[in-house]
Amino acid sequence: MSLFSNLLPKAWCQPTESTSPTPQNQTGLVKSLVAGRQIAAAAVAEGDSCEFASLQYFGLCGLGGILSCGITHTAVVPLDLVKCRIQVDPAKYKSVFNGFKVTLAEDGAKGLAKGWAPTFFGYSAQGLCKFGLYEVFKVFYTDLIGEENAFLYRTWLYLGASASAEFFADIALSPMEAAKVKIQTTPGFANTLREAWPRIYREEGANGFYKSLVPLWMRQIPYTMMKFACFERTVELIYKYVVPKPRADCTKGEQLVVTFAAGYIAGVFCAIVSHPADTVVSKLNQEKGSTALDAAKKLGWSGLWKGLPPRIVMIGTLTALQWFIYDAFKVALRMPRPPPPEMPESLKKKLEAAGKQA
Length: 358
Known about the structure:
By secondary structure, the chain is mainly α. Helix content is 71%, strand content 0%.
């Protein structure tokens, strides 16, 4: 029996009003989460198009992740290309502006789009797993530890769910990431995905697609943990201390502004914590036969931080847009968008009782 067989109930995805009764055969897990709305990001003002934690809900979250990651990463390919080149050849590409200047002089404007295909397909696959499985693991771990612990230790819940999702997301990303970096940083290797994939396989075998998987995990798992946990907690803080009215009184547009702001803040921290591993991945995919440790030694401590400013700009903007697209997708499809978590009534009563006894 599948690990998630009890987690994924039969989908009830006909449009309903928010006051409609819950179907009788929903699992207790889904009932408790929908009723309490304890974990996740926003409120539902109208009828939902599908049940929270149903198969269709998770599937739509995955589709939102495809759009969120595929579109945004492809849009910043020129900046990503320059960033990668600064990381692997800082002597030639001395700064962001110099990197653009040299690239335009050598390859023309068309050269700035190198690697767009593996970027689009790779990060679309990653987005499917990243966002879709994050929602799955968040519900699964909530059920595992219980509603009260899920609230008390929600930061750890976000960290665990996002790390679990990213583990699988990077397996989906790695082959395309290898092709992207080769195209962008190895002159004469290949200009297109159709050229890069056969050559990587011919020269390095299947290992060529996954040799950077471990450093990719080292880069992406901390990045994603920060991306989701920082975002979730920042949303809470913005509504608590910045927005001058209750979350439920905000329009969808106002909610999406909060989403974008929280996403950008999370993105800045994401870029910093994951940058050294990102530099190693770029260097590793550029050089055939090297290991992550070899690449790190060759780069040195200062070399590990090359290209950080453009990456902060890129990842900050990228993360903000990803959260905005993902949340806007949910709004457009009238998907369940639970509000920031609130303390369960059972926990409130326990704390009140403990206070009286004290």
